[in-house]
Structures are given as C-alpha cells and as structure tokens.
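Practice problem: HNH endonuclease
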Amino acid sequence: MDPAMVETWKSIHGFEGLYEVSDQARVRRTGRAAIQGKGHGGGARIGRILASCPTKKGYLAINLWKNGKISRKLLHVLVARAFIGPAQGQEVNHKDGIKTHCWLDNLEYLTRPENGKHAYRIGLRRPANLKMTAHKVRQIRSSSPWAVEDLLGSMASQNPASRASEMAEHGAKNGRAHEAREF
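Answer key — structure tokens:
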C-alpha cells in the first residue's frame, strides 16, 4: 500500500474510546456506545464505519451515541477539531467550496469575514450590494445607447425612491400627471 494513502485515525473530542475520525472524513466506532432504545439491541459492532447524511444546508452530519443519548455532529467540524485542533472564534472552511468534501487537505480555519470573502472569491456568494444581474449587464453592453437609456429608465422606475423623485419633478401624483392645469 502506498504510504501516502495511509488513513490516519484520531479520537473524537467528547467521545474518546467510542469513536474515531480519519483524515479522509470517515468515522468508525471503537467501543460500545451503549446504544439503548427501541430496535438497537444494547450495542453496535466495533470497527464499523458510520454513514453520514446531508443536512438541509448540504453539510455532512454523523449521529454519535454516548450513554444512551444521540448527538448529531458535522463531519467537517469533527475532522478539523481532531487534526487541526480547536479554534476559538473561527469557522471551518472548505477550501474548494464543496460542502461534502470534508477530508483534512480541504479544510482550514477562517474568521467569519474571511470565510465570506473566500465564498465571494470562488463564486459561492454574490456581493450584497449587487444591483444588476449578469444577464442585465450583457443586455446593456449589447444594446444601442437609446436602448440602454430605456433599460436604465425601467430599472429606475422599479426603485421607489427614484419613482418618487421622478413624480415630484414632473408633477405626477399617484402615477398620473396633472393634465388639467390652468396657467
């Protein structure tokens, strides 16, 4: 077996002697977790690799048992804590941006602002102040100058603040111009 392919295992914090996590993001049972409850039979097979399941947000999670109680843990957090160590005030970041890639080489700790900047850099997030979609930008660039004015005008009419100033400037009220003015 290639030495570079050797999987390293470490105990999971808070579950020492019961579970281990590997640098390849696998979790195995190392001791009897005293699973008690309907259909569990009082224990489970030692050495078994546990299955992970995705959360609603797309991260992989694992159910760990201890003293008859279940605890749901995020897999990337278990790997980072076991191999990188605990990090106060920082989040675990997936370097490639894919939430299901939880192996050690793909994880790092970042502060929340750094994590947000990373997500923006790799295209997972758009800037919060972005006003136009990529489609609108392409449409403007390929249009004639008159079409651009029309397009920007229609965008301005969707903005309540610019609509109010436009009505004030042109003497409109409730969207209708005052046509019956006497001079």
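Discussion: Residues 145-158 form the longest helix (14 residues). Students who identified this feature from the tokens alone can consider the problem solved.
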